Amino acid sequence: METILSINQLSKRYGRIQAVNQLSLEVTKGQVFGILGPNGSGKTTTLSMVLDLVRPDNGTFEWFEETPTKENRKRIGTVIETPNFFPYLSARKNLEIVAKVKGYDYNDIDHSLEVAGLFDRRHDKFKTYSFGMKQRLAVASALLNQPEVMILDEPTNGLDPQGIAQVRELILQVAKEGITIILASHLLDEVQKICDHVAVLNKGNILYTGDVHEVLAISDSIELAAEDNQALKEAIENHPGFKSLTVTDGIVLVVFQENIPTAQINEYFHNKKITLTHLAERKRTLEQHFLELLKDNPS
Amino acid sequence: MKLITIELKKIQTYRTFWIIFGLYFGFLALGIIMAEFMVNAMVDDVNKRLPIPLPHAVLFNFPDIWQNLTFFASIRYVLIFPAIVIIILTTNEFSYKTVRQNVVNGMSRNEFIFAKLQIVLLLTLVITFILTIVMFILGLIHSDSQSLTMMFDKFSFVIGFFVQMLTFLCFAFFVGFIFRHTGLAIALFTLYVLIIEPVIYFVFRAPFMWENTIYTYLPVNSVVRVVEYPAIPALERLMDFQLQGEVTLLSCAIPILYSVVMIAIVYWSFNKKDL
Questions:
Q1: Cβ–Cβ of B9/A74 closer than 8 Å?
Q2: pLDDT per position in chain A (299 positions), as tens?
Q3: Predicted ipTM?
Q4: From CA A36, how far away is CA A54, in angstroms rounded?
Q5: A136 and A36 inside one domain
Q6: Are residues A48 and A129 in the same domain?
Q7: A202: which residues sit within 8 A by CB, 6+ positions away?
Q8: CB–CB contact B15 A86 (8 Å)
Q9: 20 to 30 Å CA-CA from B265: which of A86, A171, A172, A285?
Q10: Which CATH number covers residue A264?
């Protein structure tokens, strides 16, 4: 598999805050790679470093298995946090500047504007655009001349639900065409819906990296209830796979270290002479998993 | 050519740019008209007390026109307009964060600096060219037929003006890159050029005008001094000093040296800093 981006031990410190701490990760061709983490976890700093906006203190990175140069940045389409364009220029003129910097002719501009749904307003000044339109123009500029990789940093931040849906639809469309996507977001739901791989970041450290579906699959929780919840609790705490439990409204919510089939759990209690009045599997969302990861790694 | 095309796209439909650019020529024209009027008013006033009257100033005849108009076009109150244009064009990139977009899209940091220096050079060339054409036409209108050698006798002042504009705009480029905020950069630059340096002049001034003090070597003054005085013989008599006959290489060297240092600082700091 061709490596698109490989980051090796990248670090950046801002005064007393270690924004990124010896971060390593690899993105291969065709992946939709999510970088997930709360605000201030180092997502933007990491992306800024691989885009030559921020100078790393330590560590290296490679684009397309080459030492980074301005030339390989021309193969990347980027949407950074806020749409950055000249307010007094039209959308079309702004994209002409982008095309010129990347060394393209203007043939693909109208097409990109159409994809972003801005063709009709292409001659209007950027400052007259709504926030959603500005963000879509940023996507259009990143899409110019089919980049090999797209980097999106919080692309739906500040958009209304309709705008969010539009931008996500656009990203999925692009992913379908086989363009590698690197998406930074603090929204689990967004990563869950769009990405196939994920790296979870907190305070500059990678907590977890892997397949999104694997993250979702591990250790769902089980809802249990019995006539005698006290006995149930004691019994479950002795289970070899037990991890943690919480009690709410007479329901005992148990997390096991790994997934255990409900039939096996039923049998376990049967052997302990406890009759369950309630047994249900609760699929955990990425959100719950994420919060747990943060709790387990109070770095 | 690619970089200058990109820069020109940024200013093509930028109204602020054209307004300030126009203001420069507006103020210049006004200044020249006022200057002749004021100098002659002063001469008339003095003549009332002199047995042998001083001649009236003639600003527009060859070859003095080269010296006179480049002098008026390079007084600090006028020079500040194109400098503000350069500051705005530079700091805009930081306030609109388009510098980030440029770098992300594949412009190197040095290319970004170089693109801005190209605009500095182009603006200097355009202003010098327009002014030269204006001076040439005005000169033709106001002078009796003269030999070519006579007409272009003081053409070194045009070269001097080119150096003045180029170096002064380099200072503006420097201020824009270092301070990054439009308002702050313009305020500090204006304060320095119009107030701080003149105050230093009053603090350190020499008893005679032609003596060198610290002030002589300050950046903005070094620029202004390239074309030091207009060719008005009455002034010579009134203020008791020798009129400048030509632009000297040494007077150009000081502002050029300042510019080189400033460009080097921008190069060094811009490559080191985060965007």
A1: no
A2: 789 999 999 999 999 999 999 999 999 999 999 999 888 899 999 999 999 999 999 999 999 999 999 999 999 999 988 889 999 999 999 999 999 999 999 999 999 999 888 999 999 999 999 988 999 899 899 999 889 999 999 988 888 898 888 888 888 888 888 899 999 998 888 888 889 999 989 889 988 888 887 765 555 678 888 888 888 888 888 888 887 787 877 888 887 777 778 888 888 888 888 888 888 877 666 566 677 767 766 55
A3: 0.86
A4: 20
A5: yes
A6: yes
A7: A37, A38, A41, A293, A294, A297, A299
A8: no
A9: A86
A10: 3.30.70.100
